[in-house]
Each structure stands twice: as C-alpha cells, then as structure tokens.
Design brief:
The longest helix is centred in the middle third of the chain and has 19 residues. This protein has 19 helices and 30 strands. It is globular, with a radius of gyration of 26 Å. Helix 6 packs across helix 7. By secondary structure, the chain is α+β, with helices and mostly antiparallel strands.
Length: about 750
C-alpha cells in the first residue's frame, strides 16, 4: 500500500477525462483543484515540511487564491524560496496559512533571501519530499512526530549558507501574510540555536541543531549579519515594523557536501522543543535517514490498516493516496497545549469539521481509535476552556472559529464514540458540555423558536439534541433526555411540506437541494414528508441528474451569471464540494440501494484519477479522500448513529484492521474495469448486490451497526450486473421506527 501512494495527487488543477453518464450532469461550484501538497508528513503528526512559493493555500505550487472555477496561476513555474513547516492539507479560505520557520539553502548573498528559484526533479513519498533548486542545491526534507530534518547537498562553493527565517509566515497573497507579535532568538553555539515566535497568539518554539563543522554561525536582522550577537528580542512587532530575522550558518562546500538541519518544535517553550528533538533525533548526530525510516514505518502501519485486493493499478494508486490524505490531519499530539497546563492530547488543524465529521472521523474511530479518543478529549477540553465546542480549530488563539458552516458537529463524533465504548473519555463530563453547547451560537434561537436560519443549522441542532438525548438516557439522566428528545423533533420545522425540500433560507456553499438530502435521525418521517418513497426517489433522481443533459463546468474567472445558472440546476455537486456528500445513500432509506450503487459507481469512476489533477475539488483535510475510502469499501458511516450503510464495493476484497480484530469485505462475481489497447481504464459496468451474508448468516438488510464492524467479522457480497431485491425490504433504522434493531444488523 505504501508504495502506491502518490502525494502529488491533488496538487494541481483538476485534470480528469470528460465525465460520462450521471457524472456528466453534476455541476461543480467550488475551485477545481485538490489544494493538497506533496510535502513530508507523519500520520496525524504535528509537523509537516514542504517547498515554499507562497502560493495558495498550502504555500506550495503556483496558484492564486481561488474560490470558484479553474484556479488562476500566480507563477508560471514551480518555484521555492525555501522550505517551510506547518501546512494545511486540501483546505480553502480558512485564513490561517502557517508556513512558519523557512529554511533556505543558498549560494547567494543574504540580500537575496526571499528570492524564488525554479524547482526540478521533485520526489515525494509518505514522510519524504525532495527537489533540486536551479542554484544546484539538492534539497530533502523528512519529519517525525514533532521534528523536521533537512538535508542539503551543495555544489562546490566558497561561501554557501543555510538561512533560517523565523519571521516567515502565511502566503504571498493579499492579506495572506502572518506577522509574529513577539519573538526571541538565542545563539547557543556548537551548531545550536533556539527561538520562539508568537504567531496568531500561539508561542511556537524551535530548537535547531546543525552539523556543519568549520562553518560560522550567526544571528541576522533585516538581512544584515550580527557578528558576535547572541540574542535578539522583539517585544512588539507590527506589519509596519517587521523586518526579517533569524539565524544563519555559512561556510565553504565541496561538490556533493551535505549539511543536515535538525529542528525540534513545541508549543510549550524551547526546553520542550529541545527535548522533542533529543527524543526523536538526538543532538549533534546525523538523523535524517533514521527519522525518514521511522516515519515511513509509521505510515506503513497506518496504511496497512485498510487493505484492498484487486482493482486496476490506477485505482490502487488513487485508493492508497486517498487513505494517505485521510491520515494527515488533524494534528493530534500529546502534552503540547499552549492554552492549558495539564498534559494529555492536544489537537489542532481540525480545519473543516463540517466535512470531516461525516467521513474522516468515523474512519479514525475504525482504524485509529486511540487517536480519535485523543481528538475528542482535546475538543472537550477546548469546550471547557473556551466555552463552546469548536467548528474549526487551528493552531491559533482567539475568536477565529468558524460557525456559519454548521452547529453541534462534535456531538456526532462523541455519540459514535460512546456507542463504540472508546476509551479515555469521561462521559458524564462530556454530557455536561454537549448539553450546554446546544444553547450557544445559533442554539439560543433554536431553543426559543424551534427554527433558526441559516436553515441547515436547524437540522444540525435538532440532530445534536437527539444525539445528546441518547447519551443522557444511557447515563440515566432521563429528565434531561426527555427534554432534549422533544426538541430533537424540531428538524421538521426546516422543511416545506409543499415541496418536501428545505425552506428558503441562506445556504453556505450550496442551495436547498444540496442540503435537503442529509441523513437525519428520522429518515422514515423525512421520506413521508416528501410524499413517500416515490416522491422522495423522484426528487433524488432529479437531483442526481437521471435523464438530464450533460452540463458545462465553470472555467477560469467565471462570471456571476454563469455561477447563478449552475446553482439553478439544483444538482449534486459531484464531490467537488461536501455539503451533499452523503446524499447518494439517502436512496437506501427509500428501499433503492441499487440507485446508491449507480451514483457511487459514477463518482468513483469519473471524479477521481491519478496525477496532480486527480481530485475534483478541495480535499478539505481528508474529508473528500475519506469519502473515497468508504465508497470504495462499500460501506458508508452515518455519523452519530452507530450505523454503516452497505453498498457494492469497488474492490474484490478489503480488510479493515479494527479494534477487536479484522473486518473483511469479500465479494463473488466482482468485475474489474476493462483495459483498452492503450492501457487506459474504461468505465466498468455498474454492479449491484444480489445477496449478502454476515459471518456466514444471511443478511437481508443493507446496513450494519458500527459496533458490528468494529468487532470484526466477514461480510460477503454476491454481485451481479442487474438490480436485485436485496436490501429493499429492511430499511435502515429511523427514530420513528421501533427502537429495537433487527438481530441480523447487530
């Protein structure tokens, strides 16, 4: 699996074959680019490192800020002014762009710092990135959990240098730069320097250890060397007063000589940064190959937790890379919170909670439950310290917490964690925060009026009340449970009974059609509100483009009228965006899993590919890639409900390493995609589940409890080319159903 990963997928504008079938009718409202980067990362680790051009949004690449259509280019070439740390992965306009502590190998004078040089001969694999600058310097970076190690191979030169710029941060776009508020740098000697910069209210400390015998080691300020200086202090920095500063190593090189730069990071001061460096690298000794090997082993372990057999080489590459992208964020580290003194897990870069709660967090609970527990424990602590569960949480202090996108999203993950009995969470304390959080932000209006605009928050809050009521009942707080359960019925207030769709309202990145097919806690009542199975299926068919003509996607700099016409289609966004990413599985609740198979098959075939342009839209911290993983496995998590929906998988066999063993999904009758004479993959035929067994017993339902999957077992799916009656008679559970689930789904 490890060798199939291609970190360059998603780093360039979308470049997929013209879509056929249903996928040709879907319209993409958001930028057609994955916004990923190929830099060195560690699974859910604290540090990343990559070539830095200042481009949007990761600091790598060529693109300007983009919010819709084909992204525009800032640069006509791949270039870098150095190598920075802490990058986002697949996000859009979240305003925290990091790229701190730029390291630049130079054979030019210090005055040229900030100039960019062309990149060539790029290489990337999990935990490793390399490229050659046109100055002739070969550059390699790797990272551990809290460290980064750089290795530079220089040409022969009388005065080469490695410059560490502590003032760097953000992007080279309008309003994209990050300016440190305060900073201090100290030259310790013997290759070692330490410093702290306060960025976005967070003290980021670094301890640097460079192995460069015979080289000079100096501090610098405003591109001028401070000969003999041992310390720089900046008590108050503003945009108007900022001048670059940092540390420098300088000396002669022979051709092929390497210089290694080892960096330990911490959010709790230089002493802890040094301890982190010592623990992973040691001091005064080469460690690049050791750190690279350890990180590669961590990646191998994580990627081997979901194995697939079969599929074309292209699908194997897309799948392995999707799993890799799913495990980069959030950053989950121990004992690094800068905001509370106690030890324990600290999570940041929970950048797109409104996307990852549906797909990525259930994936972490399945294959990395200890990391999922750490994330949730950290979110509870954030709620305790700051007064509410965050909708987005980055390495930043202050009120820059997203709220327009959703409400009560942490409640879904906590509900699943409780159903799965994950360790490390004090549930009585979690319940206090879950209940209190429902009254904050939009929750106050929901409490008073039973409806709130944007109308999607009505669905979020009703769902949050339902999930919190379930936890309260499990903890024997029946009074609280009954009160919350009454308000959980408020989801009906969001819908117009005349249309069966959401009421007119404001919508974030979509319209009422995109949000009308959310998987709610009472889908049976939801379908009845739309006129029953036939009416609901009819609206879904219209939404997914059955019988519709192909559409044209937005180009570069789309005009307002072009975007308005696209939105007016009221069409599925085709995984270019995530508001409707669970909608294909809504067919399950109306007894048509065959329709789910058709939509998901079309998405897997036409919306993902190999190469830098292989993603249909922003990866959103792994939310999109996690969708691909679940869809390929033939399972889809209904977040918060301890439930998986079952569908025809894309691979002949798959195995998930779960907490209590292994859950195997095997098929009979599986057909691979045919290969044309030029080696290209053709569209495979849609496959439908004909029958199923779970651990050798017949399974007539197209769903399983998440607890069943997490216990391990064997799901066998017999596939065929025509729709069948399988899964139509036993619907997934809804609130208005009998509370008892059928025995075969347990």
């Amino acid at each position: 699996m490890l060798d199939n990963v291609d970190p360059f997928i998603g780093t360039a504008a979308t470049d997929l074959p013209p879509a056929g079938g249903l996928a040709a009718t879907w319209w993409w409202p958001k930028p057609q680019v994955g916004n990923t980067h190929p830099g060195a990362t560690s699974p859910l680790g604290m540090v990343s490192a990559c070539a830095y051009s200042g481009a949007y949004p990761t600091g790598y690449g060529r693109y300007a800020k983009n919010t819709e259509g084909v992204p525009e280019e800032m640069f006509d070439r791949l270039q870098a002014s150095g190598f920075t740390h802490f990058q986002q992965s697949g996000t859009g306009a979240i305003r925290k762009y990091y790229n701190y502590v730029r390291v630049t190998p130079m054979v030019q004078p210090l005055d040229d710092l900030g100039q960019s040089w062309s990149l060539s001969d790029e290489e990337a694999s999990p935990g490793y990135y390399a490229a050659t600058l046109d100055t002739g310097v070969r550059c390699e970076v790797t990272v551990g959990q809290k460290v980064a190690v750089h290795r530079y191979t220089f040409p022969r030169h009388s005065s080469a240098r490695v410059v560490v710029d502590l003032s760097c941060g953000g992007l080279a776009i309008d309003l994209g730069r990050t300016v440190p508020l305060r900073a201090q740098v100290e030259n310790i000697g013997h290759g070692q320097v330490q410093g702290t910069v306060v960025m976005e209210g967070v003290p980021l400390s670094v301890y640097v250890d460079v192995d460069a015998p015979g080289w000079r080691q100096m501090l610098w300020y405003d591109r001028r060397l401070i000969d003999g200086g041992t310390r720089l202090d900046f008590d108050s920095i503003r945009h108007t007063t900022l001048r670059p500063f940092g540390m420098l190593y300088m000396g002669p090189t022979r051709a092929g000589q390497t210089i290694e730069v080892r960096m330990g990071f911490s959010l709790r001061g230089c002493d802890q940064a040094k301890r982190n460096l010592e623990r992973e690298c040691g001091l005064g000794q080469p460690s690049f190959d050791i750190v690279k090997l350890r990180t590669r082993a961590r990646w191998s372990d994580h990627l081997d937790r979901v194995k697939v057999d079969g599929g074309t080489p292209a699908r194997q590459t897309v799948y392995a890379t999707a799993l890799y992208h799913s495990l980069i964020k959030p950053c989950i580290v121990d004992d690094e919170s800068p905001f509370w003194p106690s030890n324990g897990p600290y999570a940041f870069d929970v950048c797109t909670m409104w996307d990852i709660y549906k797909t990525q967090l259930p994936l972490l609970m399945a294959i990395a439950p200890e990391r999922a527990s750490g994330l949730l424990e950290s979110l509870i602590r954030v709620c305790e310290e700051e007064g509410n569960f965050p909708i987005g949480y980055r390495m930043a202090r202050g009120a820059d917490r997203f709220f327009r996108q959703g409400s009560a999203l942490a409640h879904t993950a906590l509900a699943d964690a409780h159903a799965l009995d994950l360790d490390g969470i004090e549930w009585s304390w979690a319940l206090v925060h879950m209940a209190d959080d429902l009254r904050r932000m939009y929750g106050e209006d929901f409490f008073e009026h039973g409806v709130v605009h944007p109308i999607t928050h009505t669905l979020d809050l009703a769902y949050g009340h339902h999930l919190t009521a379930q936890l309260a009942r499990a903890l024997n707080d029946t009074r609280l449970a009954d009160d919350l359960a009454r308000r959980a019925h408020g989801w009906v207030n969001a819908f117009d009974p005349g249309t069966g769709l959401l009421r007119d309202s404001e919508f974030y990145e979509g319209g009422k059609w995109n949000y009308s097919f959310r998987l709610l806690h009472d889908m049976a009542a939801r379908i009845a509100l739309a006129g029953g199975d036939a009416g609901f299926i009819g609206k879904l068919d219209q939404f997914f483009g059955y019988g519709a003509a192909p559409v044209k996607q937005a180009g570069r700099r789309p005009q307002q009228a072009e975007m308005a016409a696209g939105y007016a289609l009221n069409r599925f966004e085709g995984l270019n965006n995530e508001p409707d990413m669970e909608a294909p599985w809504a067919y399950h609740y109306a007894g048509r899993p065959d329709r789910t198979a058709e939509v998901v098959h079309s998405a897997l075939t036409w919306q993902f590919g190999t190469g830098p342009g292989g993603l249909p839209g922003n990866d959103d911290s792994g939310g999109l890639s996690s969708w691909y993983i679940w869809a390929s496995l033939g399972l889809f998590p209904v977040a918060g409900q301890n439930l998986f929906l079952v569908n025809a998988p894309a691979f002949e066999r798959a195995a998930l390493r779960v907490r209590e063993g292994e859950f195997v999904i095997e098929t009979s009758g599986h057909k691979e995609a045919p290969i044309s004479s030029d080696g290209a993959e053709r569209e495979p035929p849609v496959q439908y589940v004909q029958s199923a067994t779970l651990n050798g017993r017949p399974l007539d339902a197209a769903h399983l409890t998440a607890a069943t999957v997490h216990r391990g077992g064997r799901l066998h799916l017999r596939l065929g080319p025509e729709p069948s009656g399988w899964g139509r008679g036993v619907r997934p559970p809804s609130l208005s159903d009998s509370p008892a689930l059928s025995e075969e789904t347990r």
